[in-house]
Amino acid sequence: MVDDSLKGRLLVALPPLVDANFNRTVVLVLAHAGYGALGVVLNRPGMTPTNEVFPHLDFVTEPDVVFSGGPVEPDGIICLAAGTVARGTEGFSPVLDEIGSLDPRRSAPDGVHAVRVFRGYAQWGAGQLEGELETEAWLSFPATVSDAFTREPNALWPAVLRRQGSRYAQLANYPRDPSLN
Q1: Which residues contact 82 (CB under 8 A, 6 or more apart)?
Q2: What integer best gives the mean pLDDT of the chain?
Q3: Most buried of the four, 33, 40, 112, 116, by CB within 10 Å?
Q4: Which CATH number applies to 9-180: 1.10.150.130, 3.40.47.10, 3.40.1740.10, 3.90.180.10?
Q5: Average of per-residue pLDDT across 168-172
Q6: Neighbours of 65 (CB within 10 A)
């Protein structure tokens, strides 16, 4: 069953989810309401250095590249920032505790200590994500700042599963191609 809102939570794709866009992904949900949900894939670093696209952004965390945030609007940009930012700060919208979205056309406001840029995003229509959760295509877990700004994004999927305890930790070792076992 799904909570009223998954905003600020992680979605971890289960191994049967073979859609290439979401295979072994970890998504941070940025918005979730009756109209659907929107999030960014946290573990798909790209090849383009962030400073080639946004040279004015400070506090960009390693790896300092633009991430593939998902298959929707691949030219759209979403920028996440971490820090203690005053409520109501123009250009900053809180998502979870110390994480918020940042207008990438602006300099980071006071209090920001980490920034990450995503090209594209993941999106679900009304009831779609709830249905995918019920069929166990995804698991939902609490998010941390270190998830959104990890320096090792390629290790995030198994790391999130392992920290959930033995029931889910076993999934972290699920082979990429079970037919090869």
Answers
A1: 98, 99, 112, 113, 114, 115, 145, 148, 149
A2: 89
A3: 116
A4: 3.40.1740.10
A5: 77
A6: 19
